[in-house]
Amino acid sequence: MSQTLSREEQKQDENIRKMEVTISKLLRIGVFISAITVFIGLLLFVISGNTGYPNQSYPTHTIEILKGFLELKPYAVILTGLLLLILTPIFRVAISIIAFIQEKDFLFVVITTIVFVILIVSLFLGKAG
Q1: Domain spans, the chain
Q2: C-alpha 48 chain-centroid distance
């Protein structure tokens, strides 16, 4: 038995490493953008001294949050950052589906797709949408 890998196995290992590095970078970028967004929202809150919403009313749906974000309402900006943080691992699962399709690993395509569907359904059942 030879300890050396065939060229095809080496290429597959290299592709897996590249995919892992790409996914790692995407996760870091997502967390960084989320943190910056939350920080900007906190900064807006400190500068303005209010949440941007009267009488302790706050947005509870994604559309309302995004409208408030576009209007630079501090509370909505913070919530947008948190929403981005929640969506980051979901995005990672979606990227994994694409990677498994490219590798022609259809068992993992099916498994990862099921996980993705569960995450999306959970997001909507949790009243995030």
Answers
A1: 1-94
A2: 29
